[in-house]
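Researcher: Sequence of Thioredoxin reductase follows. Predict its structure.
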Amino acid sequence: MADTDVIVVGGGPAGLSAALFASKNGLDAVAFDTDKTWMHKAHLFNYLGIRSMDGDVFLDRAREQATADHGVTLHEETEVTAIEQDADGFVVTADGEDHTAAYLVLATGANRDLAEELGCAFTDEDVVDVDVTMETSVADAYATGAMVRAEEWQAVISAGDGAAAALNILTKEKGEHYHDFDTPADV
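Model: Prediction complete. C-alpha cells:
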C-alpha cells in the first residue's frame, strides 16, 4: 500500500502545478524540492496573468498556494536520491527514507538522471519521451518541463506540463476523462 497517491520530484512551476492540481482534486500529493530551480534567476513578463514578477516571489506564492490553499505536503531542500518501480507503484528515497506512491511526476528541469535511472525512454534529442499527457514509457510515471523539451524552457509551458500530468492521473483515478474547471460558484 502506498504512503501517498502522487509523489512529485521538483518544486518549480511544473512540479508545483502537478502537485496542486492533484491535491486540489482529492489526491494526496507530496513534493520534494531541492530549491535549485531556474526560477531563482527569472523575472516573469511572459506568464499569462502576471505583468511583472520576480521568480523568487512567484515561487513563494506558488508554494503557499500549493501547500496552504490546497494541502500539498512539500519537503523543501530535500533531494531525491533514488527512484524505483515496484508492484504497487514507486519507491522514492529522500534523506535516507523511502516514500511510496501509486504515481510519480518528475519535474527536475534539465536534470534527467532520475528518469534515466527509472528506465524512461529518451528521444533522439536526448529528452525524456512522453505522450501528450506527459506520461513516460514507464506506466504511471510522468515527466514535465525542461526534462521533455530540448528548447522551450518557459515557466508557463512547464506549469502546463505539470497540469497535464496531474489531469491524466486524475482521469486514471476517476475512471473517466477528468476536467479541472472552476467556476465563480467554487470560490
